[in-house]
Amino acid sequence: MNEEQDYIRDIAQIRAIMERSSKFLSLAGWAGIMAGLYALAGAYIAYEVLGFNPDELVYSSTNSSGSSFSLVQVIALASAILVLAMGTAILLSYNKATKRGEKLWNAIVKRLLINMAVPLLVGGLLILVLITKGLIGLLAPFTLVFYGLALYNASQFTYEEVKSLGLIQIGLGLLSAYFIEYGLVCWALGFGVAHIMYGIYMHYRYER
User: What angle separates helix 139-154 from helix 107-132, to the nearest 10 degrees?
Assistant: First the structure.
C-alpha cells in the first residue's frame, strides 16, 4: 500500500515539474481582479463623465453628428486602463515568480507573448481603421473578440482556465457586434466582471 502511495506521489511530482517547465504559472489571480476593477471604473467614467455609449453602427469620429463624447478622451482613458492593468499584472506576477524562486522572463513567457501579440496587433490595426472610418460602434465588439483570441492562443502556455476566459470574451464580442447598443455593457462584462470572477477563482484555486 505504501509503495503504491509513493508511486502516485512520484508521478504527481513529475507532472508538476513538467508543467512548471512548459507553462507560465506565475500569473497572479489578483492581477485579474485589479484589471477587472480598472475596466469597470473606466467604463463608468466613459459613460457617465465622457458620455461615451455608441448605440449605432455608424458614428462620426469628429463629433460632427452631434455625439457628446470626445473620442480622444475615450482613447486616452482606454490607454490609461491598459497601461495600469499591464503594470499591475507585471508587478504581481513578478512578486509571485520571486516567491516561487522562478524568473519572470523566460522562454515560455516569450512564446506566450508572441502568441498573444499577433491577434492583439491585428486587432489594434483594425480598430485604427474603424476609427478613421467613423465606425465607433464596433470598437467594443472588436476589442473583445481580438482580446479573446489572444487569450485563447496564450492558454497553451499558461493555465487552462485562460482558454475559458478567452472564449467568454469572444462570445461577448460577437454578442455586442449584433447588439451594438449594448456594446459598452458587454465591454464592462468582459473586461470587468469576467476578469474579476476569473481572478477570484484563480486566487482561491492556486494561491491559497
Answer: 170
Residue 181 has pLDDT above 80, yes or no: yes
Q: Which three cell numbers stand for residue 197?
A: 470572477
Q: How far apart are CA 72 and CA 136, in angstroms?
A: 12
125: which 3 cell numbers?
490595426
Helix-helix angle 161-178:195-206, to 10 degrees: 170
Q: What is the DSSP letter of 25?
A: -
* Residue matched to cell numbers 485604427: 128
| pLDDT score, position 61 | 47
Report how far apart, in Å, the C-alpha atoms of 179 and of each of 62, 163, 176 are.
23, 24, 5
**Alpha carbons 174 and 162: distance in angstroms, whole number:** 19
Residue 66 has pLDDT above 50, yes or no: no
> What cell was used for 80?
490609461
All three cell numbers of 16, joined, read 508538476
* DSSP classification of residue 189: I
Residue corresponding to grid cell 513529475 = 14
Concatenated DSSP letters of 101-129: T--SSSHHHHHHHHHHHHHHHHHHHHHHH
Handedness of CA 40, 196, 25, 89 (dihedral sign): positive
